[in-house]
Backbone:
């Protein structure tokens, strides 16, 4: 029996089941059908029993070992061993292939007007038809092959785009968010109106752009001027008096709030603490006195440091006292927490005052330096004046006298 071999001339490995029945339009006959896939035979093989299969279908059937021919069973022709399909048990049926391949065919895809033979269909049209329905692997939408390019480029909601600026690929739905952080996104300088500054260079640009307006350094103490960088020195020189004034106000304000904060509130708090401690001690005393005459223990919800100093009480009065003790303890805890907060605030303010004092000292030194320079300049002017009047006198003694 001939082993299956590539069937010339149109023999590619048969790697597909049969052709769709639709391609034969009207001239479909049963003898052209594969006994496995029930479509039009592609590279037919004939088994020993005489039944025909696409070579793909036959190989699929026998890939798990010999099988009974289902067509033989169906037609009640089954007999061993002829009806057993097995590897190498079929030969290429070139007569049937030529017959099928010569049949007139049409394209089964809706809208396509292609016509030719089955052979031509397989050789040049199958898989190349513009009207073939395909699935977008990204968004799973169905479309015609000739719409795929447009879909991929412009319509697919899952398509990737390259960022216009940094050229990195991004999913369409992420590209807007990317614009916000793209290092190459073009920014405009508000100062010098320069355009297309890549975001990654923008910080450097405004650091050196002399037209970029930034808030005055003294805005922390209340100067609300914004100045172009090239004019910042002028502003600080012109407004040094105002800046000092603002600083002074600021420091005075802090001083006042510190004074109002520190002594009273802390004192009040510690006084209250002491009172509470006292009443706690009283309560403990009372409870231990009461507890002397009882034995039954009570599930105590008190802090362990206190439970040692008295015996729990079973009576209603005991419970009430315990409750009061609890609430007093909560108050004490709350008060000490607030004390800590206040201390923290005080130390923060102290730090601020230190910093501001230093700043003041620096400003004063600068002012002094200016004054000194001013005096020196005045002296020079005077000397020059004197000199010039002396020289004038020398030149025109008569006129002047
Ligand atoms: Zn088949
Ligand atoms: Zn058979
Ligand atoms: Zn077509
Ligand atoms: Zn898609
Ligand atoms: Zn980008
Ligand atoms: Zn600029
Ligand atoms: Zn200012």
Residues:
């Amino acid at each position: 029996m001939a082993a299956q071999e590539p069937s010339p001339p149109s023999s590619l490995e048969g790697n597909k089941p049969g052709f769709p029945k639709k391609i034969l339009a009207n001239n479909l006959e049963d003898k052209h059908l594969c006994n496995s896939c029930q479509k039009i035979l592609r590279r037919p093989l004939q088994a020993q029993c005489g039944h025909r299969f696409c070579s793909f279908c036959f190989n699929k059937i026998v890939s798990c070992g010999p099988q009974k021919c289902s067509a033989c069973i169906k037609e009640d022709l089954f007999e061993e061993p002829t009806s057993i399909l097995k590897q190498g048990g079929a030969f290429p049926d070139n007569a049937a292939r030529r017959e099928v391949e010569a049949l007139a065919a049409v394209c089964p895809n809706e809208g396509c007007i292609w016509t030719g033979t089955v052979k031509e269909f397989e050789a040049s049209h199958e898989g190349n038809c513009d009207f073939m329905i395909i699935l977008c692997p990204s968004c799973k939408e169905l479309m015609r092959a000739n719409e795929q390019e447009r879909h991929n480029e412009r319509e697919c909601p899952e398509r990737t785009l390259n960022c216009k600026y940094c050229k990195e690929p991004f999913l369409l739905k992420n590209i807007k968010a990317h614009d916000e952080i793209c290092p190459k996104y073009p920014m405009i300088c508000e100062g010098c109106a320069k355009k297309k500054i890549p975001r990654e260079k923008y910080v450097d640009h405004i650091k050196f752009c002399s037209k970029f307006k930034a808030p005055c350094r003294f805005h922390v103490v209340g100067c609300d001027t914004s100045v172009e960088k090239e004019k910042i020195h002028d502003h600080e020189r012109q407004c040094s008096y105002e800046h000092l004034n603002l600083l002074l106000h600021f420091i005075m304000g802090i001083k006042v709030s510190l004074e109002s904060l520190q002594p009273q509130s802390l004192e009040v708090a510690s006084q209250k603490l002491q009172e509470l401690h006292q009443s706690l001690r009283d309560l403990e005393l009372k409870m231990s006195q009461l507890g002397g005459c009882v034995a039954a223990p009570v599930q105590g919800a008190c802090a362990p440091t206190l439970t040692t100093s008295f015996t729990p009480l079973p009576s209603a009065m005991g419970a009430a006292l315990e409750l009061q003790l609890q609430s007093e303890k909560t108050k004490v805890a709350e008060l000490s927490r607030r004390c800590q907060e206040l201390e923290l605030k005080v130390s923060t303010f102290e730090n601020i005052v230190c910093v501001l004092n230093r700043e003041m000292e620096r400003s004063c030194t600068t002012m002094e330096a200016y004054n000194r320079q001013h005096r020196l300049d005045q002296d020079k002017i005077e000397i020059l004046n004197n000199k010039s009047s002396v020289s004038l006198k020398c030149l025109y003694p008569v006129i002047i006298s």
